[in-house]
Amino acid sequence: MQRKMRGRGVAASWYGIARTATIDRAGAWAELDDGGTAKIVTGVTEIGEGILTVLAQVAAEELGVRPEDVTIGDNDTARSPEAAHAGATRQTYMIGNSVALACRDARAKLVKEIADHWEVGESTIEAFDGEIWSAGSNLKMTMEEAVDICKKRGVVPVGSGSFTAHGTGLHPVDGSGSPWQAYVFGCQVAEVEVDTVTGEVQVLGIWAAHDVGRAINPRGVEGQIEGGVVQGLGQALMEDYQLENGHTKTHGFAKYILPTSLDIPQINSVLVEDKDPKSPLGAKGIGEPALVPTAPAIMNAIYDAVGVRIKSLPATPEKVLAALRAKQEEEVTRTAAE
Questions:
Q1: The domain that contains 153 carries what CATH number?
Q2: What's this model's pTM, rounded to 2 decimal places?
């Protein structure tokens, strides 16, 4: 056997979003303000995943204003509509849709007044990038002017929206049913190089294709995929949390071992946009699903390279060497028996 062997492995995954066995829900308020700006209020929690950027993009598209003119207001749950928890890859799907519906409600009120002001049909009104116009005519104004006209007519263009997963429940006896409203599918390929002398595994590349529904922020989605792959690589090869009798034996990151920039391979992301039919935005999500196939793909690549199956994570050099020795001993025993 050569000292360094290469192999490739593939793994596929699915991940459910928006509970239907128990009701998942989110609400939001939207208002077009003086100056042609917009304000969104919802109980969203930003933990670094970029949801505030996504909501600003959603509001800008739905209302016809610029993203920089959207303010995500006070998200204190004592003063804003409930949006539920930040987890389960649900924020874009649940909160994004509630914001979209709230914006559509606010925009409908504005459109009604402007169409009446111009004496045109509401279906002709279009808005984008801070301007509003009537298609097929030379009628056009800024969103600031439109909001001013709307308010002078006694109407504040404010709306509310609530998005709820369709509750189906589960069978009370056998538990069968559909527990999720949407599913994110993914597939990843890993290429590795295994050192048969030291047992070290180096990941040379990851190719990750994920169905995210409609990608609201493609660069953000790519970042989420890359982050998930890095976490999956750490889970597969390095991160080793030891627990004994309820007490940790891993007292710091020096022993736990996290991947650094030197450990990260080239990550190639492929966005598959199969829009979700039950979502007003068509979006699904990608936060946690990006992590799921990485470790299995790496384990399959190790098997392809050296023919040993690592069945517990992480696949440390010690485990790989032990598996290689066991394989060699098995082969010697088989040869002797023959």
A1: 3.30.365.10
A2: 0.88
Residues 279 and 136 in one domain: no
Write out the two tokens for 118. Answer: 């111009």
Domain end position, chosen among 138, 164, 190: 164
The per-residue pLDDT for range 114-132, each reduced to its tens digit, is: 999 999 999 999 999 999 9
Task: Tell me: pLDDT of 168 over 90.
Answer: no
Known active-site residue 273: no
* pLDDT class of 151 with cuts at 50, 70, 90: very high
Last residue of a domain, one of 164, 190, 216: 164
Residue-number span of the structural domain to which 274 is assigned: 4-16+180-337
In the structure encoding, which two tokens stand for residue 128, read together? 């984008």
pLDDT value at residue 307:
95
Q: How many residues are there in the chain?
A: 338
Instruction: Please work out, in degrees rounded to the nearest 5, the angle formed at the alpha carbon of residue 158 by the alpha carbons of 153 and 121.
Output: 55
Q: Are residues 143 and 35 both part of a single domain?
A: yes
Q: How many CB atoms lie within 10 A of CB 294?
A: 28
Q: For residue 212, what are the β-bridge partners?
A: none
Candidates 68, 288, 331, 338; catalytic one:
288
Do residue 159 and residue 244 come from a single domain?
A: no
Confidence of residue 158 (pLDDT cuts 50, 70, 90): very high
Strands (E) across 129-228 are located at 131-134, 140-142, 158-164, 180-195, 201-211
